[in-house]
Amino acid sequence: MLNRFAMRILAIAALSISVAVTGVSGVHADGVLAARLSALLGQERITIQQVPDGRVAALTAVPPAARNIATAPDVMTYDQAFLTSQPTASGGEQWRCLSEALYFEARGENVRGLFAVGEVIMNRRDSSRYPSTLCGVINQGTGRQFACQFTYTCDGAAESIQEQAAWVQVGKVARLLLDGAPRQLTDGATHYHTRAVSPRWARIFPRTASIGSHYFYREG
What we know:
With 220 residues, this protein is mostly helical. The chain is 48% helix and 6% strand. The protein has a 3-stranded antiparallel β-sheet, with helices on one face.
């Protein structure tokens, strides 16, 4: 049986969807939703404030179907023909962060390798061990010596997109992952490294996959 908090969260999600699908938009939609939420929450405000913002956002997000946007296909073929057939992608801040990570970390990989690296980032976002947003995961430790999690964020090189074809490609991969593409390549991996290095943690975590120029590992 759902506890009271879970029931409140489900009710919040239902309100969000209701506002989205009934055509209420813009500032008016924000006002309507805020008023309904205020009436609904009551004494639950303190409880919900203890939940990380990213987790509440994920629970209350309007599903893709209600937002009238495409969802990722259920069957992935991980080849160039499949990726080429996908529409040119775009998105907000989280899409941009994931696209940049794929571009700077893995643009030389084939389609399978791109998705594998993307899975690691998505898996970290969903793990309580890491920040609850993609941008937070990717930039964790940036600016602190030996603390960055993704090499390109602390290698001192300018982060400039020069290869437009590669950018379009990684953007499609990021969009598919954000839209719910199944993560079935790395068995829940949270780490990877190139074959050219051997970090200490690679002797501790179980290896889950070898794809392209990377080995993949699952923490814990």
